[in-house]
Design brief:
Blueprint (H helix, E strand, L loop, with lengths): L1 H24 L2 H17 L2 H5 L3 H11 L10 H12 L2 H5 L2 E9 L12 E2 L1 H12 L5 E5 L7 E6 L2 E10 L4 E7 L2 H4 L9
Helix pairs in contact: 1-2, 1-4, 5-7
């Protein structure tokens, strides 16, 4: 029971910090970086230092004042991939991919795709550009996805695709695209009235 309560408190605290950081910076991806840095600094404290402060207040104050100068930037390769997708730039998209890149998608979403893995930079670049480019009213943003570089394709506040990328320093090796609406609910944005 205590473990469940602690987990619920941690998740609530994390949501609270994300809200603060998103309010400050206006970007879910930046908010995620701020929260990760906030927790990194918390766990870098010695146990005696942590005992001297009230955790929620300390974390809230840091998240609301932290500066991003010097933090590790979001993977520029992911930004190049996102821009190429947005523009429908197949050669630009191809330039971000490993020659033997693999694309894996699920099915059941509103976007048409193949249920079988696809391999090879030319085929993957063409398919990814078709799948993720210029759908009316959609927006593609770079955001961490389960701790990996990723992108979210949203129509208004609703996620229609979640993309996870595995990368080397110079190229994308694997692209996982989730399209099934029942798996996308956690990625919908809350619209504040």
């Amino acid at each position: 029971m205590e473990v469940t309560a602690s987990l619920a408190e941690l998740l609530e605290e994390r949501e609270h910090l994300l809200e603060i950081a998103q309010w400050r910076f206006g970007s879910p991806a930046t908010a995620e970086r701020v929260v990760q840095e906030t927790y990194r600094r918390w766990y870098a404290l010695a146990p005696a230092e942590r005992d001297e402060v009230e955790p929620r207040s300390w974390l809230t104050q840091l998240a609301s004042t932290i500066e991003l100068v010097g933090l590790e930037p979001v993977n520029p390769l992911v930004h190049r991939f996102a821009l190429a997708c947005t523009l429908g730039d197949v050669p630009g998209l191809r330039a971000t991919l490993a020659g033997d890149v693999t694309l894996i998608t699920d099915t059941g979403g509103h976007l048409r795709t193949t249920p079988h893995p696809m391999q090879g930079a030319d085929q993957v670049a063409t398919h990814a550009a078709t799948l993720l480019t210029r759908h009316p009213g959609t927006h593609l943003s770079t955001e961490p996805v389960n701790g990996h570089p990723g992108l979210i394709l949203r129509q208004a506040a609703r996620a229609v695709a979640v993309i996870t990328l595995t990368t080397t320093p110079t190229e994308i090796e694997t692209i996982y695209i989730v399209l099934n609406p029942s798996k996308l609910t956690p990625w919908h944005r809350v619209v504040v009235a």
